Amino acid sequence: MAKGVKQIPAWQTIARVLLCVFGLLLSSYALYVETSKGADRDYTAMCDISATISCSKVFTSKYGRGFGLVEPLLGKDSLFNVPNSIFGLLFYFLQFILGQILHPTSSLILLLTSVLSNFGSVYLAYILYFVLQDACVVCISTYIVNASLLVLNVLHRRTVNKSVKKKKV
């Protein structure tokens, strides 16, 4: 009788920690840039490389808060009309915490939130390229982190499913 998987493989844990820390840093920087630009119109972020490669242009656009969807639907003063980076901070924190748990429910939440974040990334990438006609280094980096977390969460789900199946045997 084969032993069940009792822990998450070390490489998955290390990869998750690195991706989540990088995601948290990117989201924190995005929030810093947005608040700095809001307080000082002359502020220039390190990621503002040119007129068409500018993260502050993106973060301060109407799409930088509530994905550009909350204000028209729920109003400017809605609790959910916050900078997208706040959603990012919550997402990466959730990914980190739940990623340490070997349980079917937590792995399903990880996978579903990761799929949702990737839909958000595709939506925001479309806005970035076709609507704002900009290239945001921070944004593109978060899209890569989100895609990497999706792959990791699929593998995490498989690990959990193997663990559950072997416990039943």
Question: Could you outline the blueprint of secondary structure elements for this entry?
Answer:
Blueprint: H1 10-39, H2 55-59, H3 70-74, H4 84-98, H5 104-131, H6 137-168
Helix pairs in contact: 1-4, 1-6, 4-5, 5-6
Give a structural overview.
With 169 residues, the chain is mainly α. Helices cover 68% and strands 0% of the residues. It has helices at 10-39, 55-59, 70-74, 84-98, 104-131, 137-168. Helix 1 packs antiparallel against helix 4 and helix 5 (104-131) packs antiparallel against helix 6. The termini are close together. The model has no long low-confidence stretch (mean pLDDT 93).
- Tell me the fraction of residues in β-strands, as a range: under 5%
What is the N-to-C succession of helices and strands?
HHHHHH
Largest sheet: none
Taking all Cα atoms into account, the compactness measure Rg is: 18 Å
Nearest-integer average pLDDT? 93
- From the spread of the alpha carbons, the general shape counts as elongated
Q: Which stretches are low in confidence, meaning pLDDT under 50 for 5 or more residues running?
A: none
Distance between the termini: 8 Å
Helix content: 55-70%
Q: Count of helices?
A: 6
Structural class: mainly alpha
The tally of beta strands, per DSSP, is: 0
Brief characterization of the structure:
The chain is mainly α and 169 residues long. It has helices at 10-39, 55-59, 70-74, 84-98, 104-131, 137-168. α1 (10-39) packs antiparallel against α4 (84-98) and α4 (84-98) packs antiparallel against α5.
